[in-house]
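thread: overnight batch results

M.L. [08:02]
morning all. the overnight job finished for the chain we discussed friday. pasting input first so we're all looking at the same thing
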Amino acid sequence: MKAIVIPSYGEADVLQLREVPDPVPGPEDLLVEVKATALNRADLLQRRGFYPQPGPKPEFEIPGLEFAGEVAEAGERVEGFGAGDRVMGLLAGGGYGEKVVIHHRLAARVPERLDWREAAAVPEAFMTAHDSLIQCRLEPGESVLVHAAGSGVGVAAIQVAKAMGAGLVVGTAGSGEKLEKARGLGMDVGVNYQDEDFVAATKEATAGRGADVVLDFVGASYLERNLAVLALKGRLIVIGMMGGVSAELNLGVLLQKRLEVRGTVLRARPLEEKALVTRAFEKSLLPALEAGRIAPVVDSVFPLAEAAAAHRRMEANVNFGKIVLEV
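M.L. [08:03]
and the structure it wrote out:
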């Protein structure tokens, strides 16, 4: 099969389209012909050598943490899926290829209303957003601050938070255009981090109380302000580290406001945990996707062979929603 591989680490131009061996499914696996995949910030880190795929280093390092495609073959111990089924799901790697192997418990059915491009934009963004809000125990009526509101997970988190009953959703982004689009997804208050203070804006929007839940993709450079913006008994979950990995934590603020700070990652979790995330997504969000109450946002679509150009677009931070690779 053809796949994008990382023969050496570096800038986007290191990505190469090559012929590689087909993946071999096991008795509990699905062999899927990939129709589309989507980019994640983790792909950029992996390409630069900072986020390797779990397990032994493969002969051909193929990035890609999600996919949408058609089942070509189902293992003898697979239940619930067969050849021809439209599926999507999370991967530890390999999504930038014509075929992938996935354990059947990590596969979810693609709603009929979604085309392949839209389906590819769903798994990582919506499962991450949903799982993060569950970890933060979001209650109906609570307020949520979503950083990077124009990112793939950000646009999903806005919709999922509203679907879970959030009373107020505040979002941050670096342009007025992104904020305007995010309002169309249900965001109540937009903050342009280029010239506005998200702490002051969130406090004003919540009558001084602050946010009950903060979803953060920035990391170290936002930690102090994230603690400041949280309400009493607020919960901060760190999903990304675009702004660094090390910061000073003021334990006094943590104790005084009885805050919770946690981190999350999907890629390195064991099969059982990822299966639970997938089943929770199916139960809570798949009906909403099928009905159109929530929807993936596709920023742009590139052919698989132009993966380097897709990476450069993400690195330029101009995308709103998911960047998709059509296989």
